[in-house]
Write a structure and sequence with these properties.
The complex is a heterodimer of chains A (117) and B (113). With 117 residues, chain A is an all-alpha fold. Chain A is built from 5 helices and no strands. Chain A has one domain: Fumarate reductase/succinate dehydrogenase, transmembrane subunit (3 helical TM bundles of succinate and fumarate reductases), CATH 1.20.1300. Chain A is elongated. Chain B is mainly α and 113 residues long. Chain B has one domain. In chain B, 85% of the residues lie in helices and 0% in strands. Chain B is built from 5 helices and no strands. In chain B, helix 1 crosses helix 3 and helix 3 runs antiparallel to helix 5. The longest helix of chain B is centred in the N-terminal third of the chain and has 33 residues. Chain B starts with a helix and ends with a helix. In chain B, 27% of the residues are buried. The chains are: A mainly alpha (117), B mainly alpha (113). Chains A and B meet through helix 2, helix 3, helix 4 and helix 5 of A and helix 1, helix 2, helix 3 and helix 5 of B.
Chain lengths: 117, 113
């Protein structure tokens, strides 16, 4: 990678773009599984409960935290984008990136505290 | 013509994003509260079964996410030469898959009870 490419890709707004894209793709990949799981309720409460018990495994707990974080950062990044595109122009809203990341981490940690508590 | 279509896709992705911001915030609050003490089918279905309000909420949420994610996927595929030609078809397929599976899930958790 050329030096300017490296410089561009360590810029906070490029990282914000990358996080927005990756979180969006992960959410898209997760949604069919999410919908399929909820659809088990068509076969009755027991079928849905069976899947929920499966998701008690630690690896799924980690996955749930990651998904909540993805949803929160995608929301925060999306609000920043809408603000850039629709509000009067005032730079790249660097502080939105920091504030959005911090708020998303906080929300995901609150979720984990509730999940494990 | 294709530029006008691209502009329309941009518009619909932004409109769906604006509307969905409220849905996502609500969803984050609901899941964070619901996960306390563990998830059970009885608890989930007790909240959603027979509720027109949750049916409308999740039904609209699914429609918005299908539009938003399909356009997003199309944009990502469109930027990468190997997938460029298939971007339109795959975006449409994603929209239909999300709509079908999503509305099926909404029916599963809100009907009856």
């Amino acid at each position: 990678m050329r030096r300017n490419d490296v410089r561009a890709r360590t810029h906070a707004s490029w990282l914000a773009f990358a996080i927005h894209r990756i979180s969006g793709l992960l959410l898209l990949a997760f949604l069919p599984v999410h919908f399929w799981t909820l659809g088990l309720a068509l076969q009755g409460e027991a079928a849905l409960d069976g899947a929920l018990r499966w998701y008690e495994a630690p690896v799924f707990k980690f996955g749930e935290w990651a998904l909540v974080l993805c949803l929160a950062v995608h929301l925060a990044g999306g609000l920043r984008l809408l603000w850039i595109e629709f509000a009067p122009w005032r730079g790249l809203r660097g502080r939105w990136i920091a504030a959005g990341t911090a708020a998303s981490l906080a929300v995901s940690l609150l979720f984990v505290a509730n999940m494990l508590g | 013509m294709s530029a006008a279509r691209a502009a329309r896709r941009w518009y619909w992705q932004r409109v769906s994003a604006m509307a969905m911001a409220l849905f996502v915030l609500t969803h984050l609050v609901v899941v964070t509260l619901a996960v306390r003490g563990g998830l059970s089918a009885a608890e989930i279905l007790g909240r959603t079964r027979g509720s027109l309000a949750w049916m409308a909420f999740y039904g609209i949420f699914v429609a918005l996410v299908a539009v938003h994610a399909a356009i997003g996927l199309r944009n990502v595929l469109d930027e990468w030469p190997p997938t460029r030609k298939a971007a339109g078809v795959l975006g449409l397929a994603a929209a239909l898959l999300l709509l079908a599976l999503g509305w099926r899930a909404v029916a599963a958790i809100t009907w009856g009870g």
